[in-house]
């Protein structure tokens, strides 16, 4: 499956920098766009993505924004979990929501038990935690 049009950009058929790609249980593909602070979903055979996390054309640290999203996973309910690297947090986006909820991290880099320092990966364990 080809995603995007092969040109770097900010429209819904472009990706600034794809740092990961994951398929959900029905074959849609989710791509965190590092440069554009967003996650796009492609449903085959569409030539354009749908914004499912973050904002179009800008990054930030508000609940509806991402800054350097590096990895993504999708649970069985369709919720999206995003490793928001430069915001030092993991965000959960409930399916269809326009805002994310911080579930890990404080937004400030650190080594405390409640902090992350530019996280770059996310996964479920065998119990889907």
UniProtKB/TrEMBL annotation:
Keywords: Repeat. The keyword Repeat applies. NHL repeats lie at residues 60-91. InterPro entries: 6-blade_b-propeller_TolB-like, NHL_repeat. Pfam families: NHL (PF01436). This is NHL repeat containing protein. It comes from Adineta steineri.
